Amino acid sequence: MPAERLTMRKIREVFRLKFDSDISNRQIAKSCNLARSTVAEYLFRFQQAALSWPLPQDIDDNQLEQLLYPQLPTLSPHERTLPDWPYIHQQLRQKSVTLMLLWQEHKELHPQGHQYSQFCHLYRQWAAKIDPVMRQEHQVADFRRNRRPTSSGLGGRNHRNRHCNSGLGSTTLSGPIRRLTT
Predict the structure, then answer these.
(1) Residue-range domains of the chain with CATH
(2) Sites in the chain below the pLDDT cut of 70
(3) Nearest one of 48, 63, 40 to 15, comparing CA atoms
(4) What's the angle, vertex CA 75, arms to CA 72 and CA 78, rounded to 5?
(5) Contacts with 59 (C-beta within 8 Å, 6 or more apart), sequence order
(6) Residues 111-122: pLDDT tens digits?
(7) Quick one: pLDDT at residue 130?
């Protein structure tokens, strides 16, 4: 559910504090009881709308809202370009790559594409369908050839022992077990 918009009165107050008082976003946020990200978002929207301060007197609240929140054209899901999900999946394996970065790249190439939340939702749907099993080819070991020469302590003669690396563990006891006698 989207967050509720601030009243135009509060938005105008943010603009007034920024441009008339020339204070930091942090101080504006504290003064208006807002998050810093909210202040930054409204200032970004102000810049995107190509507005200037002071606002013209003939702009009322409805017009200001239309400038700050322009209506985006509605596209059917078939008109939106889907990203290359295998490429996205591969890129996410790299260090410091996030879905947000990949979405921003996709959005630059396709401005009419999905918004971030829908992008993440579609990626998770796609990722749930892929097989998580890692395919590995195992080669059969040939134990007849897996021999190595060793020397016995008897006369220095070399003979061939079979050497097999099995997956079984060994005991930690080395040597005979002694009995305690009382």
Answers:
(1) 8-68 (1.10.10), 85-129 (no CATH)
(2) 1-3, 72-79, 134-135, 138, 140-182
(3) 40
(4) 155
(5) 67
(6) 888 889 989 999
(7) 84
